[in-house]
Design a protein that fits this description.
Its EC number is 6.3.5.-. The protein is mainly alpha-helical. It has 3 helices and 2 strands.
């Protein structure tokens, strides 16, 4: 079952993509190849093999989180160029009307 040019055009409309006729003609066979490759992978998957997210088992190498002394808010803000209401004050980068 080959994916048609009309199906590619429909997918493009759903994705809100504007594609030229040449792009539609080029993408149809490419998407068909991708779908065929995915179908071949699905054929290989055996029912007796459980789904996995990784090929090998993972081991957590991070240390356990422990609380330890850190800077107070005042100490952290002491080196700031500008502070306001116990927070770092930074220049506005977004338009408030958006």
């Amino acid at each position: 079952m080959a994916i048609t040019r009309d199906e590619v055009a429909h997918l493009a409309r759903l994705s809100r993509m504007s594609l030229s006729d040449a792009e539609l003609d080029a993408l149809a066979p490419q998407l068909d190849q991708i779908l065929s490759a995915v179908a071949r992978v699905a054929e290989v998957a055996a029912a007796d093999i459980p789904p996995t997210s990784h090929a090998v088992p993972l081991t957590n190498v991070f240390r356990v989180d422990t609380t330890r002394p850190s800077l107070t808010a005042e100490e952290a803000l002491a080196g700031a160029p500008s502070a306001e209401e116990g927070r770092f004050r930074v220049p506005r980068i977004l338009d408030p009307d958006e």
